């Protein structure tokens, strides 16, 4: 009985002494924390996706409170509305940022990019990229293992079975997790654009045109036609690859029409209007050819006109016709020759008359 009592008393004493020591240490090394951090963290969506560049929402809240302004600090999940609430709580101003979304800059589907071999290994884009060039001749395109799908915590991207490429849905919050997970950097964050309309080059192949086209029929060949067509200087060519600046782009779609390989994609645009003339030509080209067209009729020459005029008994002089002018000059010269002969004949008759009169007198 005494042994149990002594043990209990000893444990209680050790606990009390330890608590006192911990209290003294806590007071000695106590760090004051700004209470506004908890307020800002409460206004954040709590996704902890890391899209802001900080380790979770708590890290972003601390960065916002400690910073003098909110320049460069943005929560992609909460968006501009969330940042405005935080700015109001802290008594600051925040600049509006256009909402963004992820786009897949690769059009190397099974139809456009034929497979040259078969990959038999770990189903990971990072592993396949580290081992060899891939199962196609394009060393820049999507590997199709779905690392981006696994990295997305919002279920905003999935693999399309028919094409073998990832597809981004409207649920994307532009956290950038898929961008970081792609070993070939084919996924990019771009502005959503007005009415969710976007234009971008769906290719990252930097090979020369012939090599890139051989590997993928929809590859960018760096022909610069889109650069010449763009009136806003939004397109540039670097390392045989075209790139569209979404800040300068005005979504006119002229570059899409001139691209010979279809490497430029347009998203959420209405169908192009077909003019009645083009539609009629496409639907009934034979009917138009049966109608007599003035452009297909032979142009009558001056000789033909002269012959027709002679048959009709009239004289027709075609305007601006060298042949007609020449014929008229020849006719005038003939008339002059006839008049000259008549004058000579009259002169000869007068001479004969004068000779007869002289003979009569004699």
Can you characterise this structure?
The protein has helices at 2-28, 36-43, 56-66, 79-90, 125-131, 147-151, 177-181, 209-215, 225-229, 254-258, 276-283, 285-290, 302-312, 322-361, and strands at 100-104, 157-159, 166-168, 187-191, 198-201, 235-238, 241-244, 264-267. The strands form four sheets. Strands 1-4 form a two-stranded antiparallel sheet. Among the domains are: 36-97, 3-methyladenine DNA Glycosylase II, Chain A, domain 3; 100-267, Alpha-Beta Plaits. Helix 2 (36-43) packs across helix 3. A hairpin with a 2-residue loop joins strand 6 and strand 7. It has 14 helices and eight strands. The longest helix is centred in the C-terminal third of the chain and has 40 residues, at 322-361.
Strand content: 5-15%
**Count of alpha and pi helical runs:** 14
Whole-number average pLDDT?
Answer: 82
Content-based structural category: mainly alpha
- The 3D shape can be described as elongated
Low-confidence stretches: 285-306, 308-321, 355-362
Tell me the total number of β-strands: 8
* Named CATH architecture of the domain at 100-267: 2-Layer Sandwich
> Which CATH top level class of the domain at 100-267 fits?
Alpha Beta
Over the alpha carbons, how many angstroms does the gyration radius reach?
45 Å
What is the H/E string?
Answer: HHHHEHHEEHEEHHEEHEHHHH
Query: Major sheet: size, sense and barrel closure?
Result: 2 strands, antiparallel
Arrangement of strands in the largest sheet: 1-4
CATH level-3 fold name of the domain at 100-267? Alpha-Beta Plaits
